[in-house]
Design goal:
The chain is of the alpha+beta class. The protein has one domain: 2-Layer Sandwich (Alpha-Beta Plaits). 22% of the residues lie in helices and 36% in strands. The protein is built from two helices and four strands, in the order E-H-E-E-H-E. A four-stranded antiparallel beta sheet has the order 2-3-1-4. Strand 2 and strand 3 form a beta hairpin. The radius of gyration is 15 Å and the shape is globular.
Length: 91
Amino acid sequence: MIIVGALVRAAEPDSAMVQAALAALPGATVQAFEDPTKIGLVLEAEGLNQAYDLLKGKINQIEGVLAVSPVYANFELLAEGSEPRPKKEGG
């Protein structure tokens, strides 16, 4: 599982349409900011290729999207059949 946080810049007249299109993507969570041209996006993807395809493919092709900038990525690659390690408390 890969989790990517990104900042999406949108043309102001298209901001609501861009937010709706982003929210419709599988594994996407959208966060609006006061500035309507900036949209926060968290993507959950099965792998790096899927995350890349979403960021550089589908999202860039949405009408009104000016730019997509990944700002955070968390990779949790597990061996097949293994369980995730529990997180340490307090650290």
